[in-house]
Design a protein that fits this description.
By secondary structure, the protein is mainly alpha-helical. It has helices at residues 12-19, 21-31, 39-56, 65-81, 99-120, 130-133, 140-178. The chain has one domain: Heme oxygenase-like (Heme Oxygenase, Chain A, Up-down Bundle). 63% of the residues lie in helices and 0% in strands. The N and C termini lie far apart (49 Å). 37% of the residues are buried. The model is unreliable at 1-9 and 185-189 (pLDDT under 50).
Length: 189
């Protein structure tokens, strides 16, 4: 089990960011190898996100289902517009998670939206990018306030579960980046 974050280090979301920095940097480094100006790399990038999000669906909070399901719909649409096959296999993710774990998963998925706008600028104009430009219904600052309040109210055990949930989500993205989703996928003619 992950040791609980030290509340003396500041707002919980800051502690969570620092505690998961290594996992975040590893997945960013892997994905940054993809050249989003090429259709092949962009397909791979979208397939990695699709695979990770589908696998994490068992770990979504109830209040995230509509929005995260919408992200999957956008990924499917973008991949179809690019003529890419979608790998429908699910990577194993433990579904027996506490609500705090699910909040950590939400932190990673919602946080990924922050860099999406910047990444969308690298994608050629003619390529479908509805996933990257999607604006979340719950703004990031409001989510962070919710996260901080829940962490503050729930104590060390739940805070450690939030960290574990975030690490689980980063691990799902890393697994997708190593798996079949990372292989160039194209619909046969």
């Amino acid at each position: 089990m992950t040791s609980p974050p030290d509340p003396a280090r500041g707002a919980f979301h800051s502690v969570l960011r620092e505690t998961t920095r290594r996992e975040h940097e590893l997945i960013d480094a892997r994905l940054s190898l993809l050249d989003l100006t090429t259709i092949q790399s962009y397909r791979i990038f979208l397939n990695i996100h699709y695979s990770a999000l589908r696998s994490l669906a068992v770990a979504w909070r109830r209040e995230d289902h509509q929005e995260f399901g919408g992200l999957l719909d956008r990924l499917r649409a973008d991949l179809a517009a690019l003529g890419a096959a979608v790998d429908e296999r699910i990577l194993p993710v433990d579904a027996a998670l506490a609500p705090a774990h699910r909040l950590g998963v939400s932190y990673v998925i919602r946080g990924s939206r922050l860099g999406s706008k910047l990444l969308s600028r690298r994608v050629p104009e003619q390529l479908s990018n509805s996933y990257l430009v999607h604006e979340p219904a719950l703004p990031w600052p409001m989510f962070l306030r919710e996260l901080d309040l829940q962490a503050e109210d729930s104590g060390y055990h739940a805070q450690a579960q939030i960290v574990e949930g975030a690490k689980l989500a980063f691990a799902a993205f890393a697994a997708a980046a190593r798996g079949p989703a990372a292989a160039p996928a194209q619909v046969p003619d």
